[in-house]
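ok posting inputs for the aspartic acid job
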Amino acid sequence: MFSKEVRQILPVIISPITDPLSHDVFDAGFLYFGQELQLTKSMILHKQIALMHDGYDAIYAVSPCVRLEKDTTTSRHLLEFSQVDFEFKDYSKEDVMHFMEELIVHVFSFVKDECKYELTELGRSLSVPTTPFKVFDKDEVEEKLGIDYEKLLSEQEKHSFLIISHEREFYDKEDPVKPGKYLNYDLVYPEGFGEALSGGEREHEHEQILKRMKRLGMDLEKYSSFVHLAERGILPKTAGAGFGVERLVRYLTGAKHIKDVVLFPKVPGEKVVL
Ligand code: ASP
Ligand code: MG
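and the output
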């Protein structure tokens, strides 16, 4: 991040707005002096707002996120986790994909070279992928492999790869050339480890944001502070993504369950001890 001049910002933990997420979780909000606040699910909206400021063209935060997951059958979710969440002004989907590939290659090469002893102790052999990564279109793979396409591809592939164009939340930019397709991407680890990261180009135009929110039946009032910035035309055109830190460590170490790579794991459906 330093060598690419990506500036670190401090994380936002509570706010009236956070990522609504495209899957259902229990509410992690509370009232403070009558105001409804949320614990951050992802800093996505704040990353875009941060880039409104002069001199902030590329940012990242090591951002704690809370998602009270309902699915208790997964080995790659924690109720509390961290993302290395980054965002760039005026970047395209391709620019971010390129940045992520470089980042993965850099981290994997570093760990492979510097942590030989640890990898041997763990019985883990890491291979560094070559770029560009394979790219799969979500609709095409879903048609071929069915709803479990991500899991099946992750089990089949030998190296990290990308799945693009899936429908997520209102904030992922709709493809102006192909309406109904979205300018986003998931990076997926091989060997069955599954999703590493999600991200995309963001909507920044007021009309488009309203259209997308209405289509998803969202409460516009709840997001009024964000929508207001778009209405004033000062929301920048940005793109980014966020690596799950624990998922990255799980992949690097080859741990069976994500709970094995954190000190105080909070596993969906299990009693929280510490
Ligand atoms: N960090 C992601 C993004 O930038 C959002 C997520 O957590 O899914 O799009
Ligand atoms: Mg995701």
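notes: The pocket of aspartic acid (ligand 1) is lined by residues 19, 42, 44, 83, 85, 198-200, 240-242 (CB under 6 Å). DSSP finds eight helices and 13 strands in the chain.
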